[in-house]
Every structure is written in C-alpha cells, then in structure tokens.
Specification:
The complex is a heterodimer of chains A (about 450) and B (about 375).
Chain A (H helix, E strand, L loop, with lengths): L1 E5 L10 H13 L4 E7 L14 E5 L2 E6 L7 H13 L4 H11 L4 H9 L6 E5 L4 H9 L4 E4 L13 H7 L2 E4 L2 H11 L6 E3 L12 H8 L5 E5 L8 H14 L5 E5 L12 E5 L3 H10 L2 E4 L8 H8 L4 E4 L3 H10 L2 E4 L2 H13 L1 H18 L2 H17 L12 H4 L7 H6 L24
Parallel strand pairs in A: 1-2, 1-5, 2-4, 5-6, 6-7, 7-8, 9-10, 9-12, 10-11, 12-13, 13-14
Antiparallel strand pairs in A: 3-4
Helix pairs in contact in A: 2-3, 4-5, 6-7, 8-10, 9-13, 11-14
Chain B lengths: L32 H9 L6 H16 L5 H15 L7 H20 L12 H5 L4 H17 L3 H85 L10 H7 L16 H17 L7 H6 L9 H10 L3 H23 L15 H4 L4
Helix pairs in contact in B: 3-7, 4-7, 7-9
Classes of the chains: A alpha/beta (about 450), B mainly alpha (about 375).
Chain lengths: ~450, ~375
C-alpha cells in the first residue's frame, strides 16, 4: 500500500498540533505501508516563508517532498479578507481569495498530486482550512482521506469547504464534537468517517522527581503546556489562578511549558519553564497535580491525552466542547466555567488525592482504550481496507461558473458557525470501564 | 505518579503571606468530610459529573444565592410582567409591544400599498384601453375632443395626485416600519433592563449577606481584641503571693479566673464558670474601657510580654473559624484549663460569692 501524506509543514523540530499529528501518523503508518510526505518549504505558519530547501528530504526515515510556497502571507491583507468573509455578505470568489491569502499557496504541490494521483492508494490530507488541503482534495477526491483538525472557528462556516467535506473519500475525525460540528456544517453523513485522534510517544522512563529537581519545583503544582497565548485562554487562566492563590493557604505553583507570545504576569507562583524537550515535558506533567487546559477551541488536545497517558488528571475549560466531552467520556478530567469553579476544582484535585488518583487511572485507561498506537493504527488500516474494497459512491461537487462565483449571496461565516449546534457529545454515561472505545469505522 | 506532591501538606491553617485575618469568611475549605466519605464508598469508580455537581453546590452554599442565567431570565420575565402591568395599560398595546419584535416584518408587509395606488398616470392614460379597437377610435377622435376642452391640465393634475398618493403611501410605510423597529427596540431594552435589574438584585442580596457576615466577624474580632488586651493587663498587674505558682498557666492558657482571687477554683466551679467567663468576655465589647486604673496596664512589670504571645497566637489562628468555632475553641480551652487546674493550684480556695453582672468590672479588669 502506498500512502501520501499532505500537510502544510513537516519536520522533526515542528511542534504545531496538526503537524506533529501528521508526523506521528506518518511514522506509525510507515510500519504498514510505503509513506511519502508532500509538504511545503515553510517553517513558520504565520508567514509561510520558504526556509527548507525544495526537493526530496528524509525525516526520521520518512521520505519527504517539499514544494515552494508561491507567496508569503501578509497580515494586513489576510486580516481584511478574513473580516470580509467572516462578518459580511460575500461571494465564493471572496472566499477563494481569502484562502489564497491564508496560504500556504503551493500550486506546484497540487500539480504534483494531480500528476501522480494514481501512484498512491490513499492520500491523507491534513488541516482542511488551508490552501493545500482545499486544492489537494479537489485534485484527488477519489483518494483523498481528510484529517480536518477543525475547530469551532468562523472558517468552518465558509461555503467553499462544504463540497470538500462532502466530496472526499473519507474523513478521520479527531473527536466526536468535531464530527458533529462538520456534519452539521456540511451535511456529509454519507462520507465514511471515524473518530480516531492521535496517540503520543511517551518515553519509557518517566521521573517526576527529576523534573522537580531540575526546575526547582517545590510543593504541589499544576501545569499548562502549549503556546502561551491569549487566544489559547492563557490570559483568563492567569486571572483565575491569581485570584485562586490569593485565597488559598498553601497555593500550588502554575508551571508553564511552551513559547510565550504574550506578556506573563509577574507572580512568584507562576513559573515559565520555557520550551522543553519531550523527556522534561513528560516528567513535569507526570509530577503535576493536574494539567490545566484553558483553551476555548480545540479539535483535539494532544497534551491532554498525554497527561491522561501519564495518569495526570486534566482541568479543562468547560466552554471548549471537545475538552468537556473528553472529560465526561473519560471520567478523567474536571472542568471550570468561572473563577469559583476553577478554584473549587483545583481544591478537589489538590486536597483529595484519592479522587485525583482515580481520575488519573481513568485517564490512563481512556488513553489506552482509545488513543494508544495499536488502536489508532488499526482504525486507519480498517478505513483504508474499507475504501479499497468498494469504489467511491459520491463525487466532488464542481466549482460554480465564473458569474456564480461572483454572486454576493453567501452569509457571513461567523454567523453560519454561530448557528451550528454546540455542546459536548456524551456517548455513554459510564466511565471508560463500561464505555465502548471512541470511534468505529462508519 | 501524580500523587506524591500531596505528601507533607499542612493539615491546618498557617499564617500565609496575607495573614489569617485577611482570609475572610469565604476562605476556601475542602469538601465536607461526608462528601469525601461518600466518594470513598464508591470505591474505584469516579463520576466527573457528580463531582462537578457537588462542587457547584458547594460554591452555591458559599456564595449564597446563585442563579443560573436561565433562572435569572425567568426571574426577569416575572419582573417584566410586573412592570408591564396589564391593569395600568391597554391590553392591545401591551400585546402589540410584546409581539412587535417577532411580527415586525409581517406587519410591514401587510401595510404595503396595493399595486393600484402606484399606478402611473399621464395624459395618454386618459385615452388608454385594453381594447385595441377602442384605443384606435379614441386616438382618431382625440383632436375632436380637444376642440371642446383642454384635457392636458386635468391629466397633469391627476398624474400629480397619483404621484403624491404613492409618495404618501411610501412615507406611511416607512413610518410604520420605523415605529415597528422602535417598538422592538423598546421592548428589547425593557427586557434587558429587567434582566440586569434581576441580576443586580440577586447580586445585592448576595452582597448584603456577605456584609452581614463580615459585620458579625468584625464585631467578634473587636471583642477578641479587647479580651486579649484585658488579659495582657491582667498578667502585668501585681498578684497576691499565693497565685504565684499559677502565673505560667495564666500566661500560656489565658485563664483569667486564676488571675482573679475572687474566682472559684476550676475543679469546684466547673459547671458554672464557663458561662460566667463567656459573659464577662462579651461585656468587654459593649462598653468603653472603664473600671481599672489606667496605669495598671502600663506599669505591670511582673510578666514579660512574650508570655502572653501563645495566647494571642492561638486566638489569632482561630479568628477565621467563625463565631461557633470560636466558642467551641473557648470551651475546649476552658476544659483543658479545668483539667489542668488541680495540679496547678494545690490549695483550693473557698468558693467566692457569685459575681453579679454589674460588679464584673470590679473583678475582671478588662480595661
């Protein structure tokens, strides 16, 4: 079996969520198939500046083909176009121009896909919202297996993505919430889909004491892992945490792992450990009382899964449907919707070690049942087998003609997304011990 | 893996950076023991939703009245009903206002002028007819008609009237539309105001509860401060020689009965002493510091100030536990004191006369 994986950036040092997801999938599927990655020369997702040399490369034993990005993203232009299509009545042409502005514009990659379509049995395309995914799916619809990594942001309400979600051969969702959202937005229930997600490569030896000694972490602490950004809910996290520690006698430390793109509050109990390697990161997570996830929008939080794999409970923002759904389905995480709940939840995790331990055990079980690599690989292979066993029963809708593309008949995308149903998907009321594993090929 | 951080945690309050007296009545407390016990009984199963329900009910208990948005909306709807009292308004107006937002478009559509009102009128219209032959004959006879009178001003006047009718209808339509929009806006504003007022009143209720609680706490703290000041004065005042051996107990345990020679020994007066002591301590807050010579507190050289520190610390640490906790602590303190008293006072004194409330100040130099 020959597989192509199409993703916007690829490299051992690239740690973006979807990119890391793609790399893990490529490396694990390489045990079952011949995998080739088609990607861009970009390293920075904000500018898409060409930094890697074009041509063939190899990353951790996986063949990689890199294509140059035609033009970099301009913030001003992209912002204006986003404002237009998200909040105003617009045309399909406006959306296509928005996509071109968002990037990474790589017609050469799309042309390569179109030329060599028959060379691959399946083409896994990551991140539905980018240029390469839209045109890549249109280039090889009968082989395209989409990994949308979609979240509840206005881009999902753009009309141009409807045909993509309805026209690809299959979709590998990250969560039930993502599946429900895309099905509501695109009415694509006829497209085979499965909730898969991604596993993680947990080091064999984890030693929280090592992290405590290395980073001088004393007493109980909670940890946040990811880009430290207001858009990720960090501003709100700092506020609720500071109000919490002001009231508690023996407050925990908040350890932050990741690059900061916002100003950090000057507080003795907020410790920025910087960007850490995997071993240190997992050591710190394993020693934490809880992993805090303040993000509002996630299609899948890999770090939450990693925390569960290590037996650490998760404290999630209740306004994030995906995280809330996972906490409920796993019975391994608590959630908060305001400062009072944040404090009470942390109190529970810190003051009731038996509850925290049980949450951690549930998390580990949830991870093993749903996100361990044998489970993930099996779901992908089952999907490929299903697709190979029957010809496609649906086709990609064609782009409308020149005039229709220019009709300003499309509603603002933000309005479309606002009207989509929200809330967590709770498959069964019980814990992982009596719930079916997440996802089954449908 | 993730549980070792809980080892060695302090099981009781200590003085943090902010000090105990600033923790306030809403200081976080762990879940009640019965909740923890219930969770333990459930064994290895843990239900996140159940935990969250318990957490939310705990928050609600701590913050007093806490309503969800839905409940506030319902409360606001009831308030709005009260504001829009149908007895004081025309019911039709009320209904119109209430429905104006939802039925605005329909009302405007219904008010659209009929097509005949916007019929164009000019000179040719006078001679027009759906019948072709008739139209032809009229055109033939038009010069003849013009010989009798001039129809042009008539046609002009009628055309102008038609145009005015159309404009008036459009203006009326626009006025209706604006009125409907204003109605909808007014109703929306009214509704939002009612919601905000409801929310504010709930907040005010919560705040008044907090103020009450803080006032009680403040009151209690004042009493404690005065009591401790009184205790300090007692320890500094000269004592009769026979009370000398008990001085250390007084300093450490803050037992004012042993500093006053008229108090009965604890072993004998155990049942009646505690209420009396409590009564005396409460009296301290009511009146100004009177009854003792002012120099008593300043010139007592016998006991170092450090000797009273344990008492102050202990009291301080209990300060936030609330009045009930304080009373309990006081009782325990008293019982311990009573239990210790036989050893510390080898020769029990005869029971003194009961102390009347108005005489208390003469026996207990609280000032």
């Amino acid at each position: 079996m020959k597989l192509a994986i199409v993703v916007q950036r690829y490299g051992a040092e690239i740690n973006g969520g979807a990119e890391l997801h793609a790399r893990y999938i490529a490396e694990h599927l390489a045990r079952h198939a011949e995998v080739r990655v088609l990607t861009t020369c970009a390293r920075d997702y904000l500018t898409w500046r060409n930094e890697y040399p074009p041509g063939t490369d190899s990353v951790n034993g996986i063949a990689v083909e890199r294509f140059q990005v035609e033009h970099e993203r301009t913030d001003a232009d992209f912002g204006l176009r986003s404002d237009h299509v998200f909040f105003r009545r617009h045309s399909l042409n406006d959306e296509l121009e928005w996509l071109d502005s968002e990037g990474p514009a790589t017609p050469s990659l799309v042309a390569r896909l179109r030329r060599a379509a028959t060379a691959f049995d399946h083409v896994l395309i990551f991140c539905a919202r980018y240029y390469h995914a839209y045109y890549g799916a249109r280039a090889v619809p009968e082989r395209a297996v989409l990994v949308p990594t979609a979240e509840r942001d206005p881009a999902l309400g753009l009309a141009m993505f409807g045909p993509i979600f309805r026209g690809v051969r299959a979709i590998m969702y990250n969560s039930y919430e993502e599946q429900a959202l895309i099905r509501a937005a695109a009415s694509n229930a006829h497209v085979p889909g499965v909730v898969v997600g991604v596993g993680s490569d947990i080091p064999a030896s984890i030693d929280p004491a090592r992290a405590r000694a290395k980073f001088a972490l004393e007493g109980p602490y909670v940890v946040y892992v990811g880009r430290i950004d207001a858009n990720k809910g960090c501003k709100e996290l700092f506020e609720v945490f500071m109000s919490y520690v002001a009231e508690r006698n023996d407050p925990p430390t908040l350890a932050l792992i990741g690059n900061a793109v916002m100003e950090l509050p000057n507080h003795p109990l907020i410790r920025h450990l910087g960007f850490l390697g995997d071993q240190d990161k997992f050591d710190v997570i394993a020693g934490a009382a809880a992993l805090v996830m303040p993000s509002y929008y996630e299609s899948l939080s890999m770090v939450a899964l990693e925390a569960w794999a290590l037996g650490t409970p998760v404290v999630a923002n209740a306004r994030c449907d995906v995280l809330l759904g996972q906490c409920l389905r796993s019975n391994a995480g608590l959630y908060y919707a305001n400062a009072a709940e944040f404090g009470a939840v942390l109190d529970t995790v810190l003051d009731e070690p038996d509850v925290a331990a049980r949450l951690g055990r549930n998390g580990r079980q949830f991870y093993e049942q749903n996100y361990s690599w044998p489970v993930i690989e099996r779901k992908y292979l089952e999907m490929f087998a299903l697709l190979s066993s029957a010809p496609p029963r649906h086709r990609m809708e064609k782009l409308p003609g020149w005039f229709r593309r220019r009709q300003r008949s499309l509603r603002p995308a933000a309005q479309v997304v606002d009207e989509l149903p929200s809330g967590p998907v709770v498959e069964s009321g019980g814990g992982p011990e009596d719930s079916a594993p997440e996802g089954a090929v449908a | 893996m993730a549980t070792d951080h809980n080892q060695g945690r302090r099981g009781h309050f200590h003085r943090g950076r902010r000090g105990p007296d600033r923790r306030g009545p809403e200081r976080r407390q762990g879940p009640p023991p019965q909740e923890q016990a219930a969770r333990s009984e459930r064994g290895d199963r843990v239900d996140v939703e159940q935990i969250m329900r318990e957490i939310r009910s705990r928050i609600a208990q701590r913050t007093g009245v806490e309503l969800s948005n839905q409940q506030i909306q319902e409360l606001a709807a009831r308030r709005l009903e009260a504001i829009l009292d149908p007895r004081g308004l025309k019911p039709e107006l009320l209904e119109q206002l209430r429905r104006s937002a939802g039925e605005r478009t329909i009302a405007v559509d219904a008010a659209a002028p009929p097509a005949s009102q916007s019929f164009p009128f000019d000179e040719a219209t006078l001679y027009d007819s759906p019948n072709g032959l008739l139209r032809f004959i009229r055109r033939l006879l038009r010069p003849l008609l013009r010989m009798f009178f001039n129809p042009t001003p008539i046609a002009h006047a009628l055309a102008q009237q038609s145009r005015m009718n159309t404009e008036l209808a459009a203006r009326e339509l626009e006025r209706d539309r604006r009125q409907a929009e204003w109605n909808a806006l007014h109703y929306e504003i009214l509704q939002r105001l009612a919601v905000e007022v409801s929310r504010a009143s709930v907040d005010a209720q919560n705040l008044s509860l907090r103020v009450e609680s803080l006032a009680a706490k403040l009151d209690f703290n004042e009493r404690r401060v005065r009591t401790m000041e009184g205790t300090q004065v007692q320890t500094r005042s000269p004592r009769p020689p026979e009370t000398g051996p008990t001085t250390q107990t007084v300093a450490a345990g803050a037992a004012p009965n042993e500093t006053t020679p008229h108090q009965p020994p604890a072993a004998e007066g155990q049942s009646g002493d505690a209420p009396r002591r409590r009564r005396r301590r409460r009296r301290g807050r009511r009146g100004p510091l009177t009854g003792a010579p002012p120099e008593a507190g300043m010139s007592g050289p016998s006991t170092p100030i450090n000797d009273v520190a344990p008492d102050i610390d202990e009291g301080d640490a209990d300060t936030d536990e609330g009045f009930d906790d304080e009373v309990k602590a006081e009782r325990v303190e008293h019982q311990e004191e009573v239990a210790a008293s036989p050893s510390s006072s080898p020769a029990p004194e005869p029971a003194p006369e009961p102390v009347r409330a108005e005489d208390t100040s003469t026996h207990v130099p609280e000032e």
